[in-house]
Amino acid sequence: TGHFPSTTVTVSVNSEAYMEVFRSDLSIESTGIVPQELAEQIVPEALAWASLHGILMGDKAVESSGKIPGTGLVHAPVSLLPSPFLESHFKQAIELAPLFNMLVDEVSKNDEFLQKSLSRTKGADRFTARLLDIHSLILQEGIKQEIYLGLHRSDYMADLRTGNLLQVEINTISSSFAGLGSRVTGLHRYMVNCIGQRSDLDSKAIPENEAADGFAKAIATAFKEWGNPQAVVLMVVQPGERNMYDQYWLSTKLQEKYGIHVIRRTLAEVYKSAKLHEDNTFSIGKHTIAVVYYRAGYDPKDYPSEDEWSARTLMEKSNAIKCPSISYHLAGTKKIQQELAKPGVLERFVKKADDAEKLRRCFAGLWGFDNNEELQVIEDAIANPDDFVLKPQREGGGNNIYGENIKSKLEELKEGKTADSFDAYILMQRIFPPIHTTYFVRNGEPITQKSVSELGIFSTFVRKNNEVIVNEQVGYLLRTKASDTNEGGVATGFAVLDSVYLI
Ligand code: ADP
Ligand code: MG
Ligand code: MG
């Protein structure tokens, strides 16, 4: 191909290897999609492409990298080649995207349902309680926001035990990697083309991924509806954010394609300079804010003092379009996911029986601890902890409890020896995804490992009063992690950015 020497590797690669993954069971070693030697040869090519095309993050080793763009750059952790994914599952996930958008929107409009479903959580989890307080406050004062903007990512894994595609969760706040994820698809097409004749892999099996354009377009649509071309988008960010390039992919697109200016502020900075006006608009310095796009605010650590809560409250009171609104934020909590899975509850929000059935098909088993019937599941989970995941009301990865830790946590909660309570958690059926082999590339180093993948489908939604203006699927993200780690998350260091090779 001319990209790198091909003389040393003569093994031809067959995409059958991908099929094997799905035929094999958990105990059988799968072969990987290209031989190790070939994979290692093409690593420099991948690293160069990633760097040239902005698949970047701030390097932990460089102090300024989370603060000053353009300093201490390192490529984001990626897989060298795309991972196999069943086409039928992929199509199913895409078909579900507009349905989940509608579901989140319907749930978000039902204030009583949100408050009631989260009432026990409120007593057990201070963070959720604060969010609910903001929700109550703005209901009391009268909601000023007329336009709603959803930038969601619904995450799934294929489950070997049931053969089904099961939803892990839906993210309604700070859904990340629309920016970098769509670039990784470009990387993988390039890599498959690079290997060229030495495999029968076909870059056409890697589906289009326009997630970054889709997110920017939805923000721009909402912005235009708001009706003040002089206004700006406020991106609320964490201080020292090393995943800033994923975010800059969206803000630079907004400027270049739509002429919309984006300013970045931390919650603490918003607190210092935001002003709420008589007409319910709010401003930061000379900027009137049309859209608040939260890439912070989902984690209790984002609120080290009352200042940050004041900033959030001020923004929620305003008529700016919050992405997400406080009600969208609450609708995306794990407790609501579990509540919707109860018999008949989802069906209250989805009018077409056919749609409700499609959504339900991807629900894993979910249990709360609200009534005596559900308490039996505690005993089941103590006896078989590997069949469950115990989840608190948190986002951003690294918070769930697995295996033996589930057993000890549940026993501790039963004995009441802790300030913690059952009401802060939900239990979920553990999903067992198929295992394949991935060439993980981190910090320039390739490592071959057994891996599992989680598919995220990005979707956008815009509603003005009662009119739905946008409701679409815009792209995807595959995150792949070593099969022996429980948690996912690219930012948390477990997973790499990947894309799908449809089989
Ligand atoms: P967060 O909001 O922190 O991302 P998730 O519910 O997505 O929380 O859980 C984090 C990670 O834990 C997922 O990306 C996935 O790798 C793993 N995980 C979550 N739920 C399950 C499950 N039911 N079965 C297997 N793994 C799971
Ligand atoms: Mg999440
Ligand atoms: Mg997640």
UniProtKB/TrEMBL annotation:
**Main enzyme class:** ligase
Q: What is its EC number?
A: 6.3.2.3
Q: Where does this protein act, in terms of pathway?
A: Sulfur metabolism; glutathione biosynthesis; glutathione from L-cysteine and L-glutamate: step 2/2
Which cellular components does GO assign to this protein?
A: cytosol
Q: Which residues bind ATP?
A: 169, 334, 391-400, 402, 428-431, 454, 481, 487
Keyword vocabulary terms for this entry? ATP-binding, Glutathione biosynthesis, Ligase, Magnesium, Metal-binding, Nucleotide-binding
Domain Glutathione synthase substrate-binding stretches: 231-331
Q: Where does Mg(2+) bind?
A: E169, N171, E395
Q: How is the cofactor bound?
A: Binds 1 Mg(2+) ion per subunit.
Binding, substrate: 153, 173-176, 241-243, 247, 295-298, 479, 490-491
Cofactor(s) this protein cannot do without: Mg(2+)
* GO MF term (any one): glutathione binding
The UniProt catalytic activity note for this protein reads:
gamma-L-glutamyl-L-cysteine + glycine + ATP = glutathione + ADP + phosphate + H(+)
SUPFAM superfamilies given for it? Glutathione synthetase ATP-binding domain-like (SSF56059), PreATP-grasp domain (SSF52440)
The UniProt family comment states: Belongs to the eukaryotic GSH synthase family.
NCBIfam families per the record? glut_syn_euk
Subunit relationships? Homodimer.
Please identify the protein, giving its name as recorded. Answer: Glutathione synthetase
Give the species this sequence originates from. Ceratopteris richardii
